[in-house]
Design goal:
Helix content: 10-25%
Protein name: Peptide/nickel transport system substrate-binding protein
Strand order of the largest sheet: 2-12-10-9
Pfam family, one: SBP_bac_5
GO molecular function: peptide transmembrane transporter activity
CATH class of the largest domain: Alpha Beta
Number of domains: 2
InterPro entries: SBP_5, SBP_5_dom, TAT_signal
Length: 702
């Protein structure tokens, strides 16, 4: 999956990994609103690593208390689990209920809406992914070799329509969607063993799920915590009581197109467009006006509370307003029409900050920053499997790629694009990754990779090119191929690429031409870009960034070619087909004409060695040994890279919030200063926007 905002632990592996205290909740009651303000908790840093025991007394929002009195809702104690999840963040203040939150999105049905809600999570990332905490799963354990995982879900969970949530809702997803050949849902990574084979799933009872693999699957907890389920991550559950009427197994009269995008089943399960579709998130879609706005209101059955026992969320509703135009969005922010802005979702950059600061009196918005966690900033990489054989042979030479890295004056990009923030980087996985937080060895490995080819040294770049025979052989002032034929580096990028990437591309062109190379900027129509890349028709990609974390092996695609969108697409596609009949088919056909296009890696080459290390790591239950394998993979990138080239690591991510909105953490509250960019670490969902609240809710009702 793309690293997020390109526009993408600590828990043991054996028994007793996560346990919540056995405290029963009291009856629901409405209490006086607390006086919120600065408190010791509001300056707290990070989140509790051990689960918090549920408070003995729970309270609810006034609008829900009124419905209970009117007989429209059961009392709170019957709506939440016997052991609800207690949000463990140390920065939280005592809150107030009420109000509306206005947020901009590109479309009313944009999946980024779900990035504000972590409610379908089985497990949750905490402390910027240094820890894994409980979610819908209250506790879990594995056998000794991590080939069987048992998940124990909270008792008394309910969907937003009040119907009980049980493991039958997961089995419905698994048996009637994933294993149903008519449906497009496929087994996610967490459903496969280290050998790549699909697990067996069973549900002994309504609250227990057993995942059985044919080999070790030690990355299971990390993968279960990642992404947003029923959003940008795998589905993992659907409301069986609601959807079975649209499924042919339970209703023989459904239309044949039930599983297609325009079929009734798919329409009804679309929680972003279908008001009332049952969810487990803090808010549920109330009304939907396509292209204008979508209103989400509080879920009366949300299973999460704060440490004071207040059922979340605090804000009554969120209004997501559609706006595609970045400049119009900036104007709306400056006019005070927006309450909360997750900058990377809105296309904001550091260059916009001064304008927001100048208008903050009118807008009421505070500007602040979280760390992005990027390992590259705006990046560049060649297509290692490019269809032109001469160019492919050249870009596969480490010295050629190293020469281009030495020729790149990153300091200029740091000044012009990133306002002297972040750190110069050859290009790495995220500096926030667990491997680099494991002590002195991890930091040493990270710095070696970061600094490997980062120095601006055009003389060295020229010497390396000369050594490869990439010289000016015809006297025209431009370097040719080793055989004397013309050489042009083509910078391919989607035509709708943002300013950050285009500025960087212009610097690459300037710097590489300064060492005698011919460079051509080539905007490509976004439609079909991915297919052209996967087929080897595009030479390079220079409009992405790498933030993969929190664990190199849980999201490994930048480290190891295992799919077709990164730096070695045809070899990645071959990895995908290993162990299937297709692996041995069409071997006498040109790799670029196979269906799908695919090729085997060079014998003994870096990709074959990376594959072997990854295969070994997936079966290794010992975390320390897995980390050492990851370091071996990094060493290949250091010695034979860069396979992808970075600019600036860990640049700030722009955030804005209304001055009256509280419990939005600042950088100093977060364990690693924030970890925004990777989709796998779903931000802001991991910081629980359900805890945000208005200091004066009566002033924010529309």
């Amino acid at each position: 999956m793309l690293d997020r905002r390109t526009f993408l632990y600590g828990t043991g592996l054996t028994a007793g990994a996560v346990m919540l205290g056995a405290c029963s909740s009291g009856e629901g009651e409405q209490t006086a609103q607390p006086k919120a303000g600065k408190s010791a908790a509001s300056s707290g840093k990070g989140s509790e690593r051990k689960p918090l025991s549920p408070p003995k007394k729970l309270t609810e929002a006034p609008m829900l208390a009124d419905q209970v009195k009117a007989g429209k809702l059961p009392e709170l104690a019957k709506r939440v689990p016997s052991s609800p999840y207690v949000v463990p963040h140390k920065w939280l203040e005592p809150a107030k209920y009420g109000g509306n939150l206005n947020i901009l999105v590109p479309e009313t049905n944009d999946l980024q809406i779900l990035e504000y809600m972590y409610g379908h999570s089985l497990l949750r990332f905490l402390n910027d992914a240094l820890d894994i905490g409980p979610g819908l799963v209250e506790n879990f354990e594995s056998n000794e070799d991590a080939s069987e995982w048992t998940l124990h879900f909270r008792k008394g969970l309910h969907w937003s329509d009040g119907q009980p949530w049980t493991t039958a809702d997961i089995m419905f997803w698994w048996e009637d969607m994933v294993l149903n050949t008519e449906h497009t849902e496929v087994p996610p990574d967490e459903a496969k063993s280290g050998k790549g084979t699909v697990m067996k799933m069973t549900a002994p009872d309504e609250n227990t799920l057993v995942l059985t693999y044919d080999a070790a699957a030690p990355l299971t907890p990390m993968r279960l915590a990642g992404y947003v389920n029923r959003g940008n991550g795998s589905t993992w559950m659907e409301p069986k009581h609601y959807l079975k009427q649209y499924h042919p197994r339970y209703n023989k009269s459904v239309a044949k197109n039930w599983a297609s995008a325009d079929g009734e089943f798919e329409k009804k399960r679309n929680q972003v467009q279908t008001p009332g579709c049952p969810v487990m998130t803090g808010w549920v879609l109330k009304s939907y006006k396509e292209g204008r706005q979508a209103v989400w209101e509080r879920n009366p059955y949300y299973w999460v509370v704060d440490r004071e026992g207040r059922q979340l969320p605090n804000v009554d509703q969120i209004t997501f307003r559609a706006n595609k135009d970045v400049e119009v969005g900036k104007l709306q922010i400056q006019q005070g029409k927006v309450d909360y802005v997750h900058g990377p979702f809105t296309g904001l950059t550091l260059g916009d900050v001064s304008g927001f600061k100048q208008t903050q009196k009118r807008s009421g918005m505070d500007t602040f920053f979280w760390d992005s966690g990027t390992g590259t900033g705006s990046m560049f990489f060649f297509n290692y499997d490019y269809e032109d054989p001469k160019m492919r042979a050249l870009v596969r030479k480490p010295k050629f790629r190293q020469a281009l890295s030495y020729a790149y004056k990153r300091e200029d990009a740091r000044k012009q694009i990133y306002f002297n923030t972040g750190e110069l980087s050859t290009g790495t996985m995220s500096p926030k990754a667990k491997e680099y937080q494991s002590g002195a060895e991890g930091q040493k490995i990270y710095k070696q990779w970061r600094d490997s080819y980062v120095k601006y040294d055009p003389a060295k770049a020229k010497a390396l090119l000369d050594e490869l025979g990439v010289k000016d052989t015809n006297g025209d002032g431009k370097r040719e191929m080793p055989d004397g034929s013309p050489l042009a580096i083509r910078l391919d990028f989607p035509a709708d690429t943002g300013d950050e990437h285009q500025q960087k591309n212009n610097l690459l062109k300037r710097d590489w031409e300064a060492v005698g190379l011919t460079v051509k900027l080539n905007p490509v129509a976004p439609e079909g870009y991915g297919d052209q890349w996967a087929n080897g028709r595009l030479a390079s990609q220079c409009a992405w960034e790498v933030s993969s974390g929190p664990d190199h092996l849980a999201q490994v695609a930048w480290m190891v070619p295992v799919e077709s969108s990164r730096w070695a697409p045809l070899e990645g596609q071959m990895y995908n087909l290993r162990g299937t009949p297709a692996e041995k088919e069409q071997l006498d056909v040109d790799p670029f004409k196979r269906t799908p296009p695919r090729m085997a890696p060079e014998k003994g080459g870096p990709i074959e060695r990376l594959w072997k290390l990854y295969d070994q790591a997936k079966l290794e239950p010992d975390e320390i040994k897995r980390r050492q394998i990851a370091f071996q993979m990094v060493k290949i990138h250091i010695d034979e890279g860069p396979f992808f080239m970075g600019t600036i690591a860990n640049t700030p991510a722009v955030m804005l919030t209304h001055k009256d909105l509280r419990n939005v953490p600042r950088k100093e509250n977060l364990a690693q200063g924030g970890f925004v960019n990777p989709w796998q670490h779903p931000t802001p969902a991991v910081y629980d926007p359900e805890t945000y609240f208005w200091q004066n809710p009566d002033k924010h009702t529309t």
